[in-house]
């Protein structure tokens, strides 16, 4: 037959090895994957710390840092060099120099990490929300230097913590930074730990999910290497990297039906429909049949890459590339959800969510963001105001929701999109984030 007469459905199905993926995963010595966001007040030292971490883990070399340092010297800000490792688009950065390095991924012996947003960018809050919607955990950076901690608490520290918690992030590692500036005072560290753990539990983080590490991001103490400063000898707990490595993909998510949010769709040699994204729940293997929502079209897994390496299977928490067969590219878009055809994610054009308000909410037009999916919609009803921590109803049918309060709201969308309980969504209006929270 002529090639043009061949239908997609005529191709042979990809072969399955019928693996028990969960037991393969459990016995594999594969690195686990974990993704996190870095939050905290401006100037707390987020970029410097991540830059230093990448340097010590040899993701970037000293030569690159020296080059950045020279460049930083020309504008009289040597200390910016480390921050620039991460923040390639910084505005302060003089023009004309581009150093092409992948700065948002790094590996330790046990884990492949993805930093979900590079801190320091202008449009930070929307980036952070998008990052938090996929994060396994967060790193909160606190500036321990005199006065800075106190002004940070009044500033973005609390706002960011509340935001990431309302996006469903439950584990938080607090890096108490710049301890070099307070001569590694244990008293200062303890004082900050007590205050921060107080407000984090009031924000809804459980004590067992909060860790504190005293660090100096600039000098690299307690990031990868333990501090050699005698004044820091009182701290014998885990380093920041050891804390990062403690993140475990949760077993419940592995056993759930497959859900993967598509972050990119492109054409490759292997397949005209190649998708990349993170597996949010469940598992898959070569040969599996999949369902793409909202198009409702079936596809098959021809081959899989996990963290850029060929693999037979993949599980929740991993970043994957799938080469698909038996599907036309018009049926797959960025923001779609790939799921188990036996237990597909439903489509809906109305949902109820528990939302943390950043601005006044009332019946109004909103853009709904879920990962990379954007859909136009409208707040249709506000059934209740809720207690921030317990979630109990404090008032029924309020006319308006005030900023920094939590409410149950009903949103109607202009089109059907794949939706289910537990998804983290963000509502924006006029380019501003007005609310974030979880679908009920
Ligand atoms: P960000 O806004 O949170 O990303 O903060 P930056 O990484 O840009 O750091 C802000 C300033 O704090 C810069 O001048 C850094 O050099 C400085 N800084 C960051 N970490 C440390 C630290 O551990 N010790 C000291 N002494 N200064 C630091």
Summary, kept brief:
The chain has 440 residues and is α+β, with helices and mostly antiparallel strands. Helices cover 22% and strands 33% of the residues. The protein is built from 9 helices and 22 strands.
What does it look like?
By secondary structure, the protein is an alpha+beta fold. It contains 9 helices and 22 strands. The strands form 4 sheets. The protein has a 6-stranded mixed β-sheet. Strand 21 and strand 22 form a beta hairpin. Helix 2 packs across helix 4, helix 3 packs across helix 4 and helix 6 packs parallel to helix 7. The N and C termini lie far apart (52 Å). The relative contact order is 0.12. About 3% of the residues have low confidence. Guanosine-5'-diphosphate binds next to helix 2. Its main location: cytoplasm. It is found in: Cytoplasm. It catalyses: GTP + H2O = GDP + phosphate + H(+).
**Ions and ligands:** guanosine-5'-diphosphate
Choose one word for the global shape. globular
Distance between the termini: 52 Å
State the major sheet.
Answer: 6 strands, mixed
Oligomer: single chain
User: Helix amount, in percent?
Assistant: 10-25%
Task: Quote the beta fraction.
Answer: 25-35%
| DSSP, total strands | 22
Mean pLDDT: 86
Low-confidence stretches: 89-102
Describe the strand arrangement of the main beta sheet, using strand numbers: 2-3-1-4-5-6
Report the structural category. alpha+beta
GO molecular function, one term: GTPase activity
Protein name: Elongation factor 1 alpha-like protein
Family: Belongs to the TRAFAC class translation factor GTPase superfamily. Classic translation factor GTPase family. EF-Tu/EF-1A subfamily.
GO cellular component, one term: cytosol
């Amino acid at each position: 037959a002529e090639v043009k007469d061949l239908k997609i459905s005529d191709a042979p199905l990809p072969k399955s090895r019928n693996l028990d993926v969960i037991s393969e995963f459990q016995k594999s010595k594969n690195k686990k994957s974990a993704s996190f966001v870095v939050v905290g007040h401006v100037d707390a030292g987020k970029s410097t710390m991540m830059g230093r971490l990448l340097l010590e883990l040899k993701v970037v070399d000293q030569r690159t840092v020296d080059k950045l340092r020279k460049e930083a010297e020309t504008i009289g800000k040597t200390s910016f060099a480390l921050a620039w490792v991460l923040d390639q688009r910084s505005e302060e950065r003089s023009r004309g120099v581009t150093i092409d390095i992948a700065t948002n991924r790094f590996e330790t012996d046990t884990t492949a990490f993805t930093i979900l947003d590079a801190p320091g960018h202008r449009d930070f809050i929307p980036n952070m929300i998008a990052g938090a919607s996929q994060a396994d955990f967060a790193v909160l950076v606190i500036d321990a230097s005199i006065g800075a901690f106190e002004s940070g608490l009044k500033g973005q520290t609390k706002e960011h913590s509340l935001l990431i918690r309302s996006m469903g992030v439950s584990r938080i590692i607090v890096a108490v930074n710049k301890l070099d500036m307070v001569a590694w005072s244990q008293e200062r560290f303890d004082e900050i730990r007590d205050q921060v753990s107080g407000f984090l539990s009031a924000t809804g983080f459980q004590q067992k999910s909060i860790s504190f590490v005293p660090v100096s991001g600039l000098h690299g103490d307690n990031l990868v290497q333990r501090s050699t400063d005698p004044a820091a000898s009182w701290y014998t707990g885990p380093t920041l990297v050891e804390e990062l490595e403690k993140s475990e993909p949760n077993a419940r998510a592995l056993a759930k039906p497959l859900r993967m949010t598509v972050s990119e769709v492109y054409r490759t040699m292997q397949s005209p429909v190649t998708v990349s994204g993170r597996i949010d729940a469940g598992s898959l293997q070569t040969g599996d049949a999949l369902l793409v929502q909202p198009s409702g079209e079936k596809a098959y897994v021809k081959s899989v890459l996990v963290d850029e390496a060929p693999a037979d299977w993949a599980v929740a928490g991993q970043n994957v590339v799938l080469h698909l067969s038996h599907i036309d590219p018009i049926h797959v878009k960025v923001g779609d959800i790939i799921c188990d055809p036996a237990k597909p994610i439903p489509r809906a054009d109305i949902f109820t969510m528990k939302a943390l308000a950043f601005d006044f909410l009332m019946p109004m037009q909103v853009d709904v963001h879920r990962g990379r999916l954007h859909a136009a919609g409208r707040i249709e009803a506000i059934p209740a105001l809720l207690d921030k921590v317990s979630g109990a109803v404090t008032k029924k049918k309020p006319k308006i929701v005030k900023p920094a309060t939590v409410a149950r709201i009903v949103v109607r969308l202009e089109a059907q999109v794949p939706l289910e309980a537990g998804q983290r969504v963000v509502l924006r209006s006029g380019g501003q984030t007005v609310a974030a929270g979880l679908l009920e």
